[in-house]
Amino acid sequence: MNNETRSNKEVTHLVEELPDNIQEITQTLRTLVLETSPKLIEEYKWSMPNYSYKGLVCYLQPAKKHVNLGFQRGNELEEKDIHNLLQGSGKTMRHIRIKKMEDIQPKIFTFLIHAAIKLNEK
User: Fold this and answer.
1) Where are the alpha helices (DSSP H) in 1-122?
2) pTM across the whole model
3) DSSP state of 87
4) How far apart, in Å, are the Cα atoms of 78 and each of 47, 63, 86, 113?
5) Domains of the chain by range and CATH?
6) Residue 122: its pLDDT value, please?
7) pLDDT, tens digit, for every residue of 31-79?
8) Which distant-in-sequence residues (6+ apart) come within 8 Å of 48 by Cβ?
9) What span, in angstroms and rounded, lies between the C-alpha atoms of 79 and 71?
């Protein structure tokens, strides 16, 4: 199954409506998330793309000047976040704020997404 058949129509519509710079970041992150694991299901919930496998794993939250790559159980990923990218002080959620394409770090993001999937497999 390729990414196109796994992509959600509502998410595609959301991405197409974003300003160009935010659209590029969001689409790049979306592709990265979908390519990280064929297990992830893309859903449109809470007005943003969410990715789940045995529960929520991560989400993309586009804003005017940035996109957050968020993790539902981000507090449990903090010890694996050796680059100190995770932000947030909520009970469980953490996010990485991406302001420009150069902020996207595929190897690190993929590692954290895999770690988030593993949390849901336990």
Assistant:
1) 3-6, 9-17, 20-36, 106-121
2) 0.93
3) B
4) 26, 24, 7, 12
5) 3-121 (3.90.1150.200)
6) 84
7) 999 999 999 999 999 999 999 999 999 999 999 999 999 999 999 999 9
8) 14, 59, 60, 61, 62
9) 14
Structure-block tokens of residue 69: 């790559």
Which pair of structure tokens corresponds to residue 68? 């957050």
Instruction: Give the 3-state secondary structure of residue 37.
Output: coil
What does the pLDDT read at residue 4?
59
* Distances from the Cα of 53 to the Cα of 61, 97, 101, 114, 121, angstroms: 18, 23, 27, 11, 8
**What average pLDDT is seen over the chain?**
94
CA distance 106 to 108: 6
Give 38-59 as a DSSP string. TT-EEEEETTEEEEESSSEEEE
Considering only CA atoms, which of 18, 10, 21 is closest in space to residue 101?
21
* Pairing label, strands 41-45, 94-98: unpaired
Tokens of 85: 């990218």
